[in-house]
Amino acid sequence: MALNLISPTEIKSVYFFDASKSSHHPLKLQGGLAFRRKEYGVSTSKRVYCLAQPPPPAWPGRAVVEPGRKPWDGPKPISVVGSTGSIGTQTLDIVAENPDKFRVVALAAGSNVTLLADQVKTFKPQLVVVRNESLVDELREALADSEHKPEIIPGEQGVIEVACHPDAVTVVTGIVGCAGLKPTVAAIEAGKDIALANKETLIAGGPFVLPLAHKHKVKILPADSEHSAIFQCIQGLPEGALRRIILTASGGAFRDWPVDRLKDVKVADALKHPNWNMGKKITVDSATLFNKGLEVIEAHYLYGAEYDDIEIVIHPQSIIHSMVETQDSSVLAQLGWPDMRLPILYTLSWPERIYCSEITWPRLDLCKLGSLTFKAPDNVKYPSMDLAYAAGRAGGTMTGVLSAANEKAVELFIDEKISYLDIFKVVELTCDKHRAELVSSPSLEEIIHYDLWARKYAASLQPSSSLTPALV
């Protein structure tokens, strides 16, 4: 079924009032949203121009090692939040290969008790948490024959305890969604460096999280391959040297499809990534390019680049993971096989570089590759880009609403409740509805509130619903 709504590609322009400019002239962009910023609690009966300063970036276009930041002896102690997920298991693979460099002090998982019990037996953490409280007895039973008996805490509070473990220096945030926000905030308040794999931390929580990280002198180290590439490229840059960020994208399942075929896309089509096998949600995000739009927002929060200075380039081979341009027009790139373990490793080891065996970490062979190609993304095929840039420029709670609405829309598409093109429509309508309630400098509670609101509103746009919203 398809929603009988206006397509984003049929909208002629987007109007913003850009608070970063000295004047209030509208910035006209292509896309389908017209945002107005407002402060929370201000009447929506009048237009309000928000002049709030953007949050300080995690890394202002450069990465400088501060002296005396090694407050531990021996292997670096880490906590892993989301240990049984993709990021968590790959992190533990790295620990297993480098026991002289890292040790695990605490683990938190959702409901995969069998895998969690195996991890406990292997890595012997002091604290273990299963978020699903009903599975605590099952976990204790699974560990009954283990010589190592860690402390076991159930529930959300237990996850926060893992993030704040007193012995941990770095916390790997591999938990998905806004559920990862509270543990990350708690870890920052406890002075832990963050190995960031949770997108919502910055996309939804950036306006709150970044000032908090600066207050507690905490480092946010990106574990995504694209942002790790940028982070690696800005090592040693002098202040003000960063000119432009270039995010590379595979182009997803439909990079070679003509636009007029997209109306016929089936779920199975969207799940055929041309380069690798991933989870359903991220594979669909790669097809729509929403994953890259969200990374644009993350890049703004991580490195302080203006949205006009962040570009997306289609790179089908997925070997160059991203690039930066310096003020003198030099372009620096980070290359490697598509393997999430490398960015995770650098997140854990920074500023050090750890030797990797050629057996488990294949080295890049450019001669074997032969060629690397690039092309500009098609805004008609990928309206997600205009939506993401628009939400990013609106700032505040709009970016979290964009992310949450996309997550719900992808879920509806995978469940065959909406069509592929409806993903863009649902996200656009949800963001458009939110503009009257946009909070420019939100609290943590407001961020979580609007995340939940966006999911609920996006779900209400199903064809079976009596609600038939329209753009205003």
UniProtKB/TrEMBL annotation:
Its cofactor is Mg(2+); Mn(2+). Pathway: Isoprenoid biosynthesis; isopentenyl diphosphate biosynthesis via DXP pathway; isopentenyl diphosphate from 1-deoxy-D-xylulose 5-phosphate: step 1/6. One of its GO terms (molecular function) is NADPH binding. Belongs to the DXR family. Residues 335-457 form the DXP reductoisomerase C-terminal domain. The gene is DXR2. NCBIfam families: Dxr (TIGR00243), PRK12464.1 (NF009114). It comes from Eucommia ulmoides. GO terms for cellular component: chloroplast. It is found in: Plastid, Chloroplast. It catalyses: 2-C-methyl-D-erythritol 4-phosphate + NADP(+) = 1-deoxy-D-xylulose 5-phosphate + NADPH + H(+). InterPro entries: DXP_reductoisomerase (IPR003821), DXP_reductoisomerase_C (IPR013644), DXP_reductoisomerase_N (IPR013512), DXPR_C (IPR026877), DXPR_C_sf (IPR036169), NAD(P)-bd_dom_sf (IPR036291). GO terms for biological process: isopentenyl diphosphate biosynthetic process, methylerythritol 4-phosphate pathway involved in terpenoid biosynthetic process. PANTHER family: 1-DEOXY-D-XYLULOSE 5-PHOSPHATE REDUCTOISOMERASE, 1-DEOXY-D-XYLULOSE 5-PHOSPHATE REDUCTOISOMERASE, CHLOROPLASTIC. It comes from the Eukaryota. The keyword Transcription regulation does not apply. This is 1-deoxy-D-xylulose-5-phosphate reductoisomerase.
